[in-house]
Amino acid sequence: MFQPKPISKEGIPSALMKAERYRLLNEPGEAESICLDILAIEPANQEALVTLVLSLSDQFREETSSSRTAASRADEFLARLSDEYDRLYYGILRARGSDPSCAQRRRRAALECMRAAARAPSGGAESAGRTAAERIII
Hints:
This protein has 138 residues and is mainly α. The protein folds into 2 domains: 8-82, Serine Threonine Protein Phosphatase 5, Tetratricopeptide repeat (Alpha Horseshoe); 84-138, no CATH class. The protein contains 7 helices and no strands. The protein has helices spanning 12-24, 28-41, 46-58, 65-78, 84-91, 103-119, 124-137. The longest helix is centred in the C-terminal third of the chain and has 17 residues, at 103-119. It is globular, with a radius of gyration of 16 Å. The model has no long low-confidence stretch (mean pLDDT 77).
């Protein structure tokens, strides 16, 4: 049986780039696998956690049992993000996998993200987070 070569600590930046490419090629399962390998070496790697959350969110566009599993796993990895703003910002993506009964929670998450964006420095991703939150509410 073929055993993939493990990622070395020095290979993490390259592996992160590959994970992002797989996401962009609409291969979130491949990106997820790479991120899990990275997290096995560096459990607190924030870039790997973000890419993993995004990869999982890519998998719950359709409402299936596996998408619900991906959504709950995304919550687990969101909790490991060290920055509160990042948890709120990327938590908005969790709404992509929510069923309609979670509408109230999505609105609360969007409002929290907007509040965090208001406290953050202006411009960049913080502004994008506020815009994304506004779109969820509207």
